[in-house]
Design goal:
The chain is an alpha/beta fold. It has a single domain (124-467), classed as TIM Barrel (Alpha-Beta Barrel), CATH 3.20.20. Helix content is 31%, strand content 9%. The chain is built from twelve helices and eight strands. It has helices at 10-36, 136-146, 157-160, 170-181, 210-223, 260-277, 302-311, 354-367, 403-420, 433-437, 445-449, 460-467, and strands at residues 124-128, 150-156, 185-191, 240-243, 282-285, 320-323, 374-379, 423-428. It has an eight-stranded parallel beta barrel, surrounded by four helices. Strand 1, helix 2 (136-146) and strand 2 (150-156) form a beta-alpha-beta unit. Helix 5 runs parallel beside helix 6, helix 6 (260-277) crosses helix 7 (302-311) and helix 7 runs parallel beside helix 8. The model is unreliable at 1-17 and 30-117 (pLDDT under 50).
């Protein structure tokens, strides 16, 4: 061992010791610095960048797709979802609905159109029209411009049911729908049996079996009761039915023998049938016509006939009593016998006077313990003035009435009826028969009553009725 550490190796040993000492001192110094002096800064956590987005934050549809329409404002429905409020007896344009700001309620089925409220029998303004085969809109517009609410139209049973159980409703559909769109109430006068229901074709008259007539009314009422079940398109309503017409004349009630009792039998079944289908419908008894004749074969005096109707039970089988108070050439407030002028005709009997007929019928109603309203389903004054024609045979009085008198008489008649309190709907005769039948006699006599000329020009009566206070 003394050889390895001997005096010859002392220099090498000294250097080794020095290096070792410096190493130990450096290590101790570094450890002290690391523990007591050095304070490392925090290393940020690595952030992972997301995959680059192909859609900007304000996203738009890809170029290959069709853009969707913008979401509608919460206060307005988009056009394709706008709805119309169903209205019974009126056609209206669709109106937009507003969406609620709260969550929408649970959807419910769309309600079916409802029928108009029950129509009363009290005083109102009406007029006779002819629409079959005509453009309905000008007719409805003309009535609306008058400010009237009712129209009457005759419906001939033989034209609607030419064979048993086979119905041709097209023109009645159009009539009822036209009235519905124009907000007009409709009275139909149902007349004229088909040949297949009768034992004779002589003149016009009731069916041999009244049940055939009642079956027809049942089908008609079902189609036009406006309840949405088995109805005509758009569910229009017929609001009132007048059962037959001037049945105190042989020409209208041939050949069953003139009989108020037989007529009331027909009316009773009609009343029960119509009410069973549409309880709100108004049933008007057929209006007799003033005749002044009472031979029992060709005519029964209308006052006598009305009393016979009451004797047969009229009070319980109608809602209103029909009347035809013709004025001939006599002013509406004139009465017989005071109004009888020895120098002219058509004034020598009460049946020629509007006022006599209305007051006589009302008195008969009251005397029978009834209070029904009188519906004048036809009344008016004929005039040839301004038409360039003469009066037809049997209607010579039309030459005695000027166009202005025709206007004045109609206005005065409405005013009188309104003041009485016991008159119901008053239907002037007529709006436009002249446009249908012209003025050539004998059928053209109806055109002399018209308040429109055959070429649709208003006569003075049209303007007077439109301008009168209602």
């Amino acid at each position: 061992m003394s050889k390895y550490f001997g005096t010859g190796n002392s220099r090498w040993f000294t250097w080794l010791a020095a290096i070792l000492s410096l190493t130990i001192i450096g290590a101790v110094a570094f450890a002290g610095w690391a523990l007591f002096i050095y304070k490392p800064s925090p290393v940020p956590v690595a952030q992972v960048s997301p995959e680059p987005s192909l859609v900007p934050t304000t996203a738009v549809p890809p170029a290959t797709e069709t853009p969707s329409p913008p979401t509608p404002s919460p206060t307005q429905l988009p056009p394709e979802t706008e709805t119309a409020t169903p209205t019974p007896s009126t056609v209206v344009e669709p109106t937009a609905t507003t969406l609620p700001t709260e969550p929408p309620p649970t959807p419910v089925p769309t309600p079916q159109p409802t029928t108009p409220p029950t129509v009363g029998t009290g005083f109102d303004y009406g007029i006779n029209i002819h629409l079959f085969g005509q453009d309905g809109k000008p007719i409805a517009d003309a009535v609306n411009n008058l400010g009237f609410r009712w129209v009457k139209h005759q419906v001939r049973w033989n034209e609607i049911e030419p064979q048993k159980g086979e119905y041709v409703w097209s023109e009645v559909d159009r009539l009822a729908r036209t009235c519905q769109k124009a907000n007009l109430y409709l009275l139909v006068s149902v007349v004229t049996s088909p040949d297949w229901t009768r034992n004779t074709t002589e003149a016009e008259g009731p069916p041999a079996n009244y049940q055939d007539f009642w079956n027809f009314l049942a089908a008609m009422a079902e189609r036009y009761d406006g309840d949405g079940d088995r109805d005509a398109p758009d569910s229009p309503r017929i609001h009132a039915y007048e059962i037959w017409n001037e049945q105190n004349l042989r020409r209208e009630w041939c050949c069953d023998g003139l009989s108020a009792a037989r007529y009331v039998e027909l009316l009773r079944g009609a009343y029960r049938t119509l009410k069973s289908v549409d309880p709100r419908v108004i049933v008007v008894s057929g209006a007799p016509t003033p005749t002044g004749a009472n031979d029992g074969v060709n005519a029964i005096d209308d006052r006598i006939y009305l009393q016979q109707m009451y004797d047969a039970g009229l009070r319980d089988v109608c809602d209103a009593v029909g009347v035809h108070p013709s004025g001939y050439a006599n002013p509406p407030d004139s009465k017989w016998p005071e109004g009888d002028d020895p120098n002219r005709g058509f004034d020598d009997h009460p049946s020629f006077f509007f006022r006599n007929t209305m007051e006589d019928y009302h008195n008969i109603i009251v005397q029978n313990g009834d209070n029904k309203k009188l519906w004048a389903t036809e009344f008016g004054w004929a005039s040839t003035d301004g038409l360039g024609v003469e009066a037809c045979a049997g209607w010579e009085y039309a030459a005695e009435v000027t166009a202005q008198q025709q206007a004045d008489y109609l206005v005065r008649a409405y005013q009188m009826a309104k003041s009485w309190g016991w008159a119901g709907v008053m239907f002037a005769w007529n709006l436009n028969m002249g446009t249908v039948y012209g003025l050539e006699c004998p059928n053209g006599e109806v055109g002399r009553f018209s308040i429109l000329t055959p070429d649709w020009q208003p006569r003075p009566a049209y303007y007077a009725l439109a301008n009168m206070s209602k």
